[in-house]
Write a structure and sequence with these properties.
By secondary structure, this protein is of the alpha/beta class. The chain has helices at residues 22-25, 40-43, 46-53, 71-84, 95-107, 115-119, 184-202, 210-232, 237-250, 264-276, 280-294, 300-311, 318-335, 352-363, 376-385, and strands at 11-14, 31-35, 58-62, 88-93, 132-136, 148-153, 158-163, 171-174.
């Protein structure tokens, strides 16, 4: 097991009716920016619950944060927050809203060009941020309990990530009941997003981290078991609770401790969103099977372990068992009505591999993956296999 340090300061309020606890943890006398997305929180009752819990607080609203939050929109929120002297931000929504608020929180006091935080990788050098909390409405990204964020820029068709110790939410409220009104597409996306988060930290190479492996496998098995139940019936509270907590646990820092991690699937997938506007989770479903096949020699031991422990695959040659494990993963995504080929989303895919490789090379991204050997030629092969 590799050396590690771990600190996660986010307080979690999980379960029915927990939105009522907001007044207990929101700083007294705070001037709050309530940030949310397209307005679904006004239809599902969350908006009213938030205002009921925060009676007496001075609240300014900012709506319209997109499913892939854009720099252009978020800068409007930054300007509003600066004008209104906001002292606390409450993100109410899914991972995109929370990601957006993380950027807003550090951009407000930032003295330079805020896009540099992403483009120049300044996250770890940040020294100031406006504190924030979240009310989660869509389980998927784990952003409610981690310090990472991903932001897109429409003008340049870029989608970049940053992280900072300042970007942990002070608290997050997770009430599975809010999932009852989610569209099936969002539920399916959340399942695949969480699943791939686990795989990025698990499907690398063994380092003797037995507990991390078992926790990862437990989350994968729970997603396989409980995810389809929620997809078919969002009113199943028990299944929804298990899905919501699995998505949080998939990316709250626990699984990465003492193990190598990959993240090449995400970096390639971000480019597909930037270029074609494809849902984040669906880009992961497009890229990951091809990446597992292209990099199977690197991942052989963990692919065999994954196949046996998660899918019960024990028969056949090593090559056959690896292919069965990947095929089972693809079948799981298909069971959630998620296509795993780029051609299902766009007809303009022929030069996609070359364009992504050119982008990576221009940024100096020439050595990705857990062994730093997902080189540009490998990226090209992975993307072309994904067509």
């Amino acid at each position: 097991m590799l050396n590690f340090e771990f600190h996660n300061p986010t307080k979690i309020f999980f379960g029915k009716g927990q939105i009522s606890k907001l007044s207990e943890v929101t700083p007294k006398n705070a001037k709050i920016m309530l940030a949310y997305g397209g307005g679904s929180i006004k239809q599902n009752g969350v908006y009213d619950q938030v205002y009921q819990a925060l009676q007496g607080y001075d609240i300014i609203e900012f709506a319209g944060i997109e499913p892939n939050p854009t720099y252009e929109t978020l800068m409007q929120a930054v300007e509003l927050a600066r004008r209104e002297n906001i002292t606390f931000i409450l993100a109410v929504g899914g991972g995109s809203v929370i990601d957006g608020v993380k950027f807003i929180s550090v951009a407000i006091p930032f003295a330079g060009e805020p896009w540099d935080i992403l483009e120049k990788g300044l996250g770890k050098s940040l020294t100031q941020a406006i504190p924030f909390g979240s009310v989660l409405t869509i389980p998927a990204t784990g952003s409610e309990m981690n310090s990472g964020s991903v932001v897109s820029r429409k003008a340049t068709k870029q989608k970049l990530a940053f992280g900072s110790p300042l970007c942990f939410p002070m608290f997050s409220v997770l009430d599975p009941e809010v999932m009852r009104t989610l569209p099936a597409r969002q539920i399916a996306n959340g399942i695949v997003d969480a699943y791939t988060h686990v795989m990025e930290q698990y499907l690398t190479y063994p380092v003797g981290a037995a507990l991390q492996d078992r926790i990862a496998e437990g989350i994968l098995l729970t997603l396989i078991e409980q995810g389809p139940k929620v997809y078919q019936n969002p009113n199943d509270y028990e299944a929804a609770a298990n899905l919501m907590w699995s998505a949080t646990m998939a990316l709250n820092g626990l699984l990465r401790l003492g193990v190598p991690t990959d993240w090449a699937t995400h970096m390639i997938g971000h480019e597909l969103t930037a270029l074609f506007g494809i849902d984040h989770a669906r880009t992961l479903a497009i890229v990951s099977p091809s990446l597992y096949r292209v990099m199977k020699e690197n991942k052989k031991e963990k692919l065999l372990q994954y196949g046996e422990r998660v899918w019960g695959i024990k028969e056949g040659t090593e090559e056959e068992r690896i292919e069965k494990a990947i095929a089972q993963t693809v079948a799981f995504y298909h069971s959630l009505d998620i296509d795993t080929r780029l051609s299902a989303y766009t007809s303009d895919y022929q030069r996609t591999a070359n364009e992504i490789v050119d982008r990576f090379i221009s940024r100096g991204w020439k050595q990705l993956g857990e062994k730093r050997d997902v080189t540009p030629d490998k990226v090209k092969e992975i993307v072309e296999m994904s067509y």
